[in-house]
Amino acid sequence: MKRRQFTKLALLGGGLAPLLPACQSLAKLQASPTAPAHLSKAEAEAMSRQAHEAFMGLNGDDFKMMGEEHIAMLLYPGFAALDLVGPQYLFASMMGAKIYLISPADDLKPVTSGEGLVIVPTHTPSECPETLDIFFVPGGANGTLEAMKNAKLIDFIARRAASSTYVTSVCTGSLLLGKAGLLKGKKATSHWTMLELLPEFGAIPVKQRVVWDGKLITGGGVTAGIDFGLQIVAALRGKTYAEAIQLQAEYDPVPPYDSGSPEKAEPFVRDNIKGIFSPLAEKFRLAI
């Protein structure tokens, strides 16, 4: 892409528009006692160009501004919305990447998540590219259980995984990968309440936010999808690019409660959440 085209795209809000160099320059300008109260349009655009050119100048082994990755993200009724939306935001921030939201059927009807968020697919399974850089499967609860029983969907997962550079999931999406025969002998993770099911697929369970094993990348429960996505961005575009996207997203978590894992949660909370999920875990076991 020519520099002029890149700057025009950035000024329209694509990719890395509001990132670190511009923020630092603006902070210095505002800190000066003689600085104007605000920037003119021309000054703001000049600062944006300078910041983007600084990033473009980093192109090398540890930074790739533009790419052409093909990323397919599978939808199915009852998927967990944040499993999908967190990674999708990060993948969509990679300039030049193409994201395919794949319908579970041969139409583009909206797909409703388990939380009621409705997503409109962009492509049917038959329109999904044969060769992918990333094939992604979100998790869920009862929706994932029903997806495990859908032989056509499981076959699609297996076929696309075979020709993808990375095969990935977040939360109980790993159970769908397991059902498709993709976890045998592999280290993997899942939502903590379902981690004990992974050996049923021949997998080696690992209690970790993100687990890599060859081309297989699995994330833990729900919010782990953000850590998962940043690691993949770094693998594809370099650490600096991932750091820039993290800053753009202002991902700097300071949770109000330290109860985000079974090791940290109060026993009362941990044990009762485990109990609530027990019937679902048994249904998953039967579906395996």
TrEMBL record:
Pfam families: DJ-1_PfpI. One of its GO terms (biological process) is regulation of DNA-templated transcription. CDD domains: GATase1_PfpI_2. Residues 70-234 form the DJ-1/PfpI domain. Keywords: Signal. InterPro entries: Class_I_gatase-like (IPR029062), DJ-1/PfpI (IPR002818), INH-QAR (IPR052158). Residues 1-27 form the signal peptide. It comes from the Bacteria. This is Cyclohexyl-isocyanide hydratase. It comes from Methylobacter tundripaludum. The lineage of its organism: Bacteria, Pseudomonadati, Pseudomonadota, Gammaproteobacteria, Methylococcales.
